[in-house]
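Input chain follows. Return structure tokens only.
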Amino acid sequence: MKNLKLASYLLLAFLMFNVSSCDNEPLEGDFNNTTNNGNGTNTELSSLFDKWWYDSEDFTADIYFHSNGMYEQKVTLLGNEVISTGDWIWVNESERVMKIENLGGSGQVATDIWFRFSDVQESSFNIEQSQNGTSYSVPRLYLDTE
């Protein structure tokens, strides 16, 4: 009886290894397009550029990343539109961390801010903001329509 029980465990182990082993076959399926588009920018991340992005909860500023490295943000306070501008650079593109430098404009306190992007799609992304590049805010959903 013990031999039969041991044999069944061995058979189960044998089947698990044979069924779960893999061949050297090419991957199939639809994967995120994260290839380089030739100008040093990740194709998936290129959807960030040259259009306005709006906070889905209308809480923070609308933002615009120009493909030439310029940055704009605008917010309406008491009926007045307040605009700030600066320059953006990738601190770590593979980790989707961007730094906004030389930020200036009416009421702008910080001259540098960091953004960390996640779930970047053609018409939406999540963004976390930091004043020091180490501790980030909770993610906010941005959309390319108001």
